[in-house]
Amino acid sequence: MPPAIDPAATAWLLVSTALVLLMTPALAFFYGGLVRSRSVLNTMMMSIASLGVVGLTWALAGYSVAFAPGSALAGGPAFLGLSGVGLEAHGVIPHLLFFAYQATFAIITAALISGAVVERLRFSAYLLFLPLWTLVVYAPVAHWVWGGGWLASLGALDFAGGTVVHINAAVAALVAATLLKPRQDYGRQALLPHNVPFVLLGAGLLWFGWFGFNGGSALAADGLASLAFVNTLLAPAATLTTWMLLDLARTGRPTAVGAGTGIVVGLVAVTPAAGFVSPLSAICLGALAAAPSYFAIQWRSRTRLDDSLDVVAAHGLGGVVGALLTGVFAEKAWGGAAGLLDGNPKQLLVQAVAVLATVAWSGGASYGLFKLVDKLVGLRVEPRAEGLGLDRPLHAEEAYATDAGAILVLEEPVAAQAMGEPTTHPAAP
Amino acid sequence: MKLIVAIIRPERLSAVLESLFKAEVRGLSISRVQGHGGETEAVETYRGTTVKMSLHDKIRLEIGVSAPFVDPTVQAILRSARTGEVGDGKVFVVPIEKVYRIRTGEEDIAAVTPVVAGS
């Protein structure tokens, strides 16, 4: 008998898909608040663009590379252009819904990379990079872990995408920041967040969306989904608290940008573990995840690596710590797989293999793709555009425009003249 | 004593401050202003509305200096604010009638001679 579609699971996954989609605009606010005001639109557009470009790429080809029957390394061509993806059951939800849910993951993963390249990457280069990276890097790694590929066969635990999403994106971010070189003002003047409330808004909405990211990854509306949901509540709470204590110990003043960062690091760390560990372990995992990212961020800003919004420290290191601690804290009684503390030390090794494989593939392939894009359109904007901030030169818009001195350009000069009005108002002398 | 008023490009501000610091010019105020210096108007589009931005963001520096510092200050600004394109800005040197330092009531030269807090 073919598996039946479960209405409860379908309802929850429909909601989860919408929740995960919201994470990408949330990321736009998180990243947008962290940059200077003259590049905020460009920064936010890099997240928003992914909704369109990666969404299409995923439908046309990415989903097939990740989830169609194929080899251990990549999926086959069966689902190209969504052929064969219909209303039939995939697990206990409609196949089409599973596709949409996965699409939202591909979209945010690519968008995460943009945090390393803000205020200097050519937008056309970014638009070209998005589909290439999704097809060549993201989709195969998703296949390894979730599509029945070799890491799945090896028994690697990655509940909602610690390796596939976060480590994967962070390594690409590291490569991008290295190839692109620092911003011209980097290390010469303070580059301050222009809107900290945006950062907190983004972090809050990311947390909200993450309940769909982790809770939905159970692909059911059951106890496992509830476990992942609760762990998504508790782990970031522990990371956030630890982060504020670290701030308090270091400078005596807990910071708002730190709090937003702590939330994201906790969410990243619990992602691979959400459905495998007990709620108490999730709290330990969240607390343990704070310090590595915290000190990596302090250290990074004193180097020449302009990973501008600390994608590597937050998502890379947070992802690695989460992936490894999943191998430590996993319990058979909760999620059906045993880790180090449950008498299965080998799991920790398998987790390390999954991390290393992702780092190697994403590092090598992302390097090749960035070099290719550099050859085709060039990665870096003109120095003058960089000095002005990217919003005006690249998008012909300002985030915080005043109408002072704005001369309306009338679209129909003939009609306008007939009405006795000049086509433009002369500028003040 | 002169008041030096300079209108510069915002993106040159850090270079100008660095250059003034090297010229040992201390004590200045800046403000964000908008102005028109003959440069090409930037075109922006919002939905169906296209506008030419005739006023550009500029930074205004105001520096009160004693006579020996006038030329070094002006030269430092000219050197560091220049890009060679229309819209680089202006430097005005304006006579000052009287200067008071509010904290001490010192006047004129004493009032524009910088002191370092704590010294």
Q: What is the element layout, followed by pairings?
A:
The complex is a heterodimer of chains A (429) and B (119).
Chain A: H1 7-34, H2 40-67, E1 89-90, E2 93-94, H3 95-113, H4 123-146, H5 150-154, H6 162-180, H7 196-215, H8 223-251, H9 256-270, H10 279-300, H11 311-329, H12 332-335, H13 346-376, H14 383-388, H15 391-395, E3 406-409, H16 413-418
Antiparallel strand pairs in A: 1-2
Chain B: E1 2-8, H1 13-22, E2 29-35, E3 42-46, E4 49-53, E5 56-65, H2 67-81, E6 89-95, H3 108-112
Antiparallel strand pairs in B: 1-5, 1-6, 2-5, 3-4
Helix pairs in contact in B: 1-2
Query: For the terminal residues of chain B, how far apart are their CA atoms?
Result: 24 Å
CATH homologous superfamily caption of chain A: Ammonium transporter AmtB like domains
Helix content range of chain A:
55-70%
Bulk shape of chain A? globular
Mean pLDDT of chain A: 93
Structural class of chain A: mainly alpha
- Give helix and strand order of chain B, one letter per element, not per position: EHEEEEHEH
Characteristic terms for this protein:
heterodimer; A: about 425 residues; mainly alpha; 3 strands; about 0% strand; B: alpha+beta; Alpha-Beta Plaits; four-stranded antiparallel β-sheet
